[in-house]
Amino acid sequence: MRQLRCSWSSLKPLIIFITPLALIPLPLLIRKKEAECAYILIVMAVYWMTEVLPLSVTALLPAVLFPLFGIMKSSQVASVYFKDFHLLLLGVICLATSIEKWGLHRRIALRLVTGLGVNPGMLMLGFMVGCAFLSMWLSNTSTVAMVMPIVEAVIQQVLNASEEASKDHKGALNGISNPALQLEDIEAQHDQSEKIKSIEAGITEPDQTAPEEPETVKAPPPYNGKYRTREDHMMCKGLCLCIAYSSSIGGLTTLSGTSTNLIFAEYIYQYYPDCTVINFGNWFVLCLPICIIMLILSWIFLHWMYLGSNFRASLCSRQRSEREKHTAKVLRDQYNSLGPISWQEIITTIIFILMAILWFTRNPGFMPGWSSLFPDYPGYATDATVALLLGFIFFIIPGHKPNAERYEALITWKDFQACMPWEISLLVGGGFALAEGTKISGLSTWVAELMTPLGSLPPLATVTIACLIVTSITEVASNAATTTIFLPILAPLAEAIGVNPLYMLIPTALCVSFSFLLPVSNPPNAIVFTYGHLTSMDMVKAGLGLNVIGVLTVLLALTTWATPLLNLDTYPDWAPVVNSTGV
């Protein structure tokens, strides 16, 4: 592994220099703005996918190359790097900073987990629900970083439980898993277990030199090092994977839940300014069922892989084994260590709820929202207005009792800076600049015309192909970079074949988040992998199933409740008329 890392490090400079040199014939031979913009787009795509440069550094290339190629003026490029998205992100990070600083996330997670149960199956479901809820409002990476220490404490309690508790647990849960799906060689452990069972049943005689002495049976050695039994190891794997996957699933539910949702929303606001159906309320109604369906199916799939198919024991068991009592005690002790809820947590909760209510009611669609109170300025107030207003309050309300010597707000600028993802801000800005350049140069129109033959396929088939492509690419490239690359291509394609652009873009924006396959696919996967309970192949096998569940759920939503909610079956007035055919 170390040799591979050294080899890759030595290849990075070569990729940085060879990529633009190998592609330079494109703008030299085809002296058109489309070719020059395509050259910049391909170079950025290679850099983003290989990450030979930091993502934010690559995002600055349009500011350098667009003026040099005469595509856009430097002042024009600079103006698209900072959009409404960034203001919304600032407000959301203020909320996330306060939640993390005062420990509200731990209280929410522990309350949800203990409320659902502590047997392995319900423990997995509880952590999934808790992570999904937190990731609706916090970044997926922050959510996993907050919850994994709690999970690890539970895992260590399980590993330190007594052998008697293990026997009780086997009777209660029958913690089997699917042998065909496991990677470890367990034949030696199986033979040892069978031998012990035979001795206990009196079928075979133990190897003893003094038969008159009482029989003693030695306990089998620990399974695979630190794990006492195979069931323990499988449960640890299932708990770790459920944390990583549920955080990505929960982030789909709100526009602010993940950067890819925000990039999509800002792209719609920028290039389809008359489109009013993409707002916080509609997105929540669209994606909450997707999140619920994916969580349920993912829990069933992971339970089947790592805890076996005895779902009745997980859902209906009322008697707790000794191990479950130990686990419940750990969670209860951690919750009690938080003490009574502090007034800082209460204020943060109130602002959090108020922010969600104002987002929902700004322009709900089925009734006039509070934005109608300003009829002279329609469309002026956005979700970013709400986020900034309430985020501003965090810097005003004191974090402690007023003191003549010292005054400190709920959050400080230092706290905010520690949580603010500046890299994502630059990355998204670079994506907006790239999208604007493809539009001005005519590249997006040229690509759309080139892909017009896809119009002969059913629209759902075209969308399915797009979802599979982005789901595959996002496993090896940044989610945000993948979104930034594909939105400017798929939107003109939808216009060219006469399909509602949202019909094409929404599934693509959602499927970009399905990076479940590899430890390096996204930060949540990497975090849980570092705890040492998983191998890469564990994640590949589970991730394939989650990818299938995710794509099918998105396509189900697209063909059912999403169509009437967003009028996806008609070509909208706010999109350019290129082809008169509809869905």
Summary tags:
globular; disordered C terminus; membrane; ion transport; single chain; 583 residues; mainly alpha; sodium:sulfate symporter activity
- The ordered string of helix (H) and strand (E) elements is HHHHHHHHHHHHHHHHHHHHHHHHHHHH
Helix share bin: 55-70%
Q: Count the strands?
A: 0
What does the average pLDDT come to?
Answer: 79
Q: What's the alpha carbon Rg, rounded to whole Å?
A: 27 Å
- Regions with pLDDT < 50 over 5+ consecutive residues? 162-173, 175-220, 579-583
Strand content is: under 5%
Determine the N-to-C terminus distance. Answer: 49 Å
Structure description:
- With 583 residues, the chain is an all-alpha fold.
- The chain has a domain at 82-103 and 344-410.
- The protein has 28 helices and no strands.
- Helix 21 runs parallel beside helix 24 and helix 22 (443-450) packs across helix 24.
- The longest helix is centred in the middle third of the chain and has 27 residues, at 280-306.
- The radius of gyration is 27 Å and the shape is globular.
- The protein starts with a helix and ends in a 17-residue tail after the last helix.
- Residues 162-173, 175-220 and 579-583 have low confidence and may be disordered.
- Keywords: Ion transport, Membrane, Sodium, Sodium transport, Transmembrane, Transmembrane helix, Transport.
